[in-house]
Amino acid sequence: MRKVNRYYESKLSKYGITPSQFYVMSVMWEKDGVKFKDLAKSLEMDGSTLTSILDRMERQDLVERRNDPEDRRSLLVFLKEKTKQNIAEITCLAEKLDQEIKERFSEEEFATFERVLEKLFQD
C-alpha cells in the first residue's frame, strides 16, 4: 500500500496535492457543498483526520468551509474555482495511474489484490 501511495504522491505532486486530498476532491466533485459529516462518512475517515486535510487544503486555497444556513452546528465544504478547473485533468491522471497499476497484474491477480484490500479495510 505504501508503494502504491508513493506512486500516486509522485504523480499528484505536480498539482501540489496528496492522494488524500485527491480523494477529498473527488467526493466533492460529485457533490460540491457537501456537509462535513457526510464527507467524512463518504471517505470513511474520522473527523479529526478530515479536519487536518481540509485545513491544509484551505491554506492552499483549494476548498472553503462555510456555515450551513440550515443547521448552524454543521459546516459545508466547497471546492474553490481553481480546484474545479483542475479536477478533470487530475481525475484523468488518476485513472491513468489506476490503469498503469492494473496492467502490472493479470486479471486474476488484480481481482485477488482487490479482495485482499477489501478484507483489510472491512469494519
Tell me about this structure.
The chain is α+β, with helices and mostly antiparallel strands. It has one domain: Winged helix-like DNA-binding domain superfamily/Winged helix DNA-binding domain (Arc Repressor Mutant, subunit A, Orthogonal Bundle), CATH 1.10.10. The protein is built from six helices and three strands. The chain has helices at residues 2-12, 19-30, 36-43, 47-59, 81-102, 107-120; strands at 34-35, 63-68, 71-79. The chain has a three-stranded antiparallel beta sheet. Strand 2 (63-68) and strand 3 (71-79) form a beta hairpin. The longest helix has 22 residues, at 81-102. The two termini are 18 Å apart.
Keywords:
65% helix; single chain; 3 strands; Arc Repressor Mutant, subunit A; 123 residues; alpha+beta
Structural class: alpha+beta
Order of helices and strands: HHEHHEEHH
Q: Rough shape? A: globular
Query: With helices defined by DSSP (H or I, 4 residues minimum), what is the helix count?
Result: 6
Largest sheet: 3 strands, antiparallel
Low-pLDDT sequence parts: none
Helix content: 55-70%
What's the CATH class label?
A: Mainly Alpha
In angstroms, what is the radius of gyration? Answer: 16 Å
Looking at CATH, which topology would you report?
Arc Repressor Mutant, subunit A
CA-CA gap between termini: 18 Å
**Total domains, how many?**
1
Topology readout:
Elements (H helix, E strand, L loop, with lengths): L1 H11 L6 H12 L3 E2 H8 L3 H13 L3 E6 L2 E9 L1 H22 L4 H14 L3
Antiparallel strand pairs: 1-3, 2-3
Helix pairs in contact: 1-5, 2-5
